[in-house]
Mutator family transposase
Amino acid sequence: MDTLKLNTQQIQAAVDQLTSQPDGINKLLEMAINSLMKAERSAYLEAAVQGNKANGYRSVNGFGIGEALSLQIPRDRLGHFKPTLLNIMRDQSDSLNELCFELYAKGLTTRDIESITQTIYGQHLSKSQISRITVSLSDAMREFRERPLNSYYPIVYLDATFVKTKRERVSSEAYYIALAVLPDMTREVIGIYNAPTESSSFWDEVCQDLKSRGMQQTDLFVIDNLTELDSTLEKHFDASIQKCVLHLKRSILNKVKKQHRLAVVSDLNEIFQMDNREDTKEKLLNRAQQVVQRWQRYYPHMKRLADPYWLSYYSTYLSFEYDIRNMIYTTNWIERLNKAFKRTLKIRNSMPNVESVLTLLSKVAIDMNSSTYRHPVSRFQKSNLFK
């Protein structure tokens, strides 16, 4: 049978007629890709060693528009022929895997992702397939968490966030976060860890891990008010410690009667004068002692404000230049990061296991490191960290 020969106008008319059908574009793609692969095999066999020949086809699915393409991959007897288009399809598959993980990391459920991939690509990915995709990328996230660190970070923020996680049953578990300011004044998440509860003993393990990965020195730790965390840090690093002033205020107000709260708030603001450029630790201690004299008969727990040693952990920020005090007297920076974690996790009532939480938190941290935290902190210069 002679080969049918059509001119350009006839070919265009045939293509127009085919693509006008509901699934015509996908049919055209199938025919074009299959024909290209078949022609590539013919050219390959003509240039190949003698004894090799065509050996049928194998069926695979490719990405179409709204539905999958049915493709026929040509084979040769020796198994050496690999169509160039396979690399393109492999890249598509990798891209789909990355898309699934990005969507999952942004908070979509596996069911949401299944629906999106079916609608856009015509590629039906089951819940188990999507779960396997996310698991396959967990190794990269683990490498991120275990990567070597710089030897020096000017400031390190430490905090824990809690996520409902399933072990034998679902419960809120602690995920420990370390956020560092780098010498170039950008920020970077340098540690993500898990333990069932927050404790100073596990923070000890965190310190050991940071050191084993290369961290040797920091000038300042900014932490919450967890008992004995300060002594844990001092055991591992020669660094100043700033405890969160906002956490202190909340803990005091939680034990104050409602009718006294406004007055106590005013007095606490009088102690911690963040807008006072000329403030010193001595002046702060004097004000604190005056406030204690006013309230201690009603609230004995406020007596500790008059203890110079205890209060020193909350006034370390006064050893720093005025321009950076607002960013180091609280753990607000790392709490903002925790809010980003919560946004990713909030759609899910609970996570199936610890590794899934660590993987998602790592992905959020990588995104923050590569975008938000790449911008240097304004007005913050290494030369004037300390007075």
Q: What stands out?
A: Residues 379-383 have pLDDT under 50 and may be disordered. Residues 289 and 306 are 5 Å apart (CA to CA). The first strand starts at residue 54 and ends at 63.
